[in-house]
Amino acid sequence: MRAYDPSVETQVLTSSSPEYEQYRTRIFNSRQPNRKPIEIVLPRTTEDVVVAINRAGEKNIKVGVRSGGHLFAAPSVIDEGMLIDTKYLNKSLEYDAATKVISFSPGHTVEDLANYCTSIKRFFPFGHSRSVGIGGFLLAGGQGLYCRGHGYTCETWVTQIEVVLPSGEVVIASKTQNHDLWWAAWGAGQGFFGVLTRIWGRTNRFRQQFDVTYILDSTECFKPLLKWALDNSERIPRHGVDLMIGTLYADAQAPGDGDESEAKRVFMVLNATMACDSIEEAKTLSAPLGAIPEEFKKFVVAHMPVQERGWEDMWDLQDKFIPSGQGERYRVDSIIVDNGVSNDEIVEACSPALFELPTRKSTGTIIIVDWNPDEADQALSLPQRMTVATMVCYHNPELDVKMDKWSYEVYKKAEKVGLGQYIADFDAQQRLTKLQVMTDSAMTKWLKIREKYDPEERFIGYRSFKKSLELKWNR
């Protein structure tokens, strides 16, 4: 049988196709779903997507859409449904020098977009991991580079989108055209009821990237150190500075696939990434990060001073922190922290999720966001003070149930300071709670818009967070 060449043809794969399993399992997480779509469609053009959607309607099957495969629960893989994989869709990258607008595909990755933008000396706030698909990243809202200063990428950077609706109609949505669809896209994530086929976004001039990192052995001082790190984050400028607090075992990056840490030492990583014009400016922006109190200085095990970084440098660091490709299995959970809780309360509620890591390669992260969206602009409407997340990483499949249980228990504790959850981490199969992916009023509005565009429920990813809202109402 002739091998599939994505450069020349659209392919419809069935379970008998040689490439079926390759594309069914094209996800970041080696913990693969058992679900098997009837068809996997690999479109090259918008018209190919229209044909696929119309065929799904004729067959009365549900549709899932994948861009990069970074949703750990793989909700796009629907049993007895259709999977539209946008990896090869509309692969041209275009830039309008007059408007400073770039256009791209939902199947382009962060790496694709970063390299292209750098080649034309422009910047668009994509995500932090090279293999993340831009379509999924933006539908989740886009917790991208430097969002502390300019908010999520969807809010002010994207100018319009092309969407294939469940009816097969192709429409353009923007702030002035099909506004309800535009509003409903951002923050819908896995629940979106259409297929993004083209995206347009404004760009800024490219600025150099710098970063600085401190690593401390937090084993004997975790809670007071975390409290200081949270307090200190409020002293660091918002614009042009990304802040991350991470936790990992001292031997997390040691060779091998053993799941138990032998070091038993938990390191805390304090990192700032800056976009600016000189190393002097970067040092000024990040200066508060280095103001480590005397009581903690003895715990510093490494310091990487301010230095210029290329995208490859930053992606390599990310790949080491959250590895894949060698059989790594993941259970991921997170919360969006409530604006009304104190840093002391955050430390108490979230320390188990960040410090009591269950396996050697597991990591914890706090991403400081400091963004308050306007519900009038997009469905993504929860105040975004910070997100707390744990990437439980392991190799042994026999640990699946144990890791699920650990994650469930620590995030039930963390929920005490939670306001909601970032839609990209939402997994109703793991933890269905009262925590929402958008405000109640936004969800109510969103469900009405979804019903308007998809009354036959061709896209069913929304059902899980609808259940979460119903759970909240019934409590």
Largest sheet at a glance?
A: 8 strands, antiparallel
Low-pLDDT segments, ≥5 res? none
- The tally of strands reads 19
DSSP helix count?
Answer: 15
**Roughly how many Å is the radius of gyration?**
22 Å
CATH class of one domain: Alpha Beta
CATH level-3 fold name of one domain: Vanillyl-alcohol Oxidase, Chain A, domain 3
**Strand order, biggest sheet?**
15-12-14-13-17-18-16-19
| Secondary structure: helix percent | 25-40%
End-to-end distance: 56 Å
CATH-defined architecture of one domain:
3-Layer(aba) Sandwich
**How much of the residues is beta strand, in percent?**
15-25%
Shape: globular
Organism: Pseudallescheria apiosperma
Protein name: FAD-binding PCMH-type domain-containing protein
GO molecular function: FAD binding; oxidoreductase activity
InterPro entries: FAD-bd_PCMH (IPR016166), FAD-bd_PCMH-like_sf (IPR036318), FAD-bd_PCMH_sub1 (IPR016167), FAD-bd_PCMH_sub2 (IPR016169), FAD-linked_Oxidoreductase (IPR050416), Oxid_FAD_bind_N (IPR006094), Oxy_OxRdtase_FAD_BS (IPR006093)
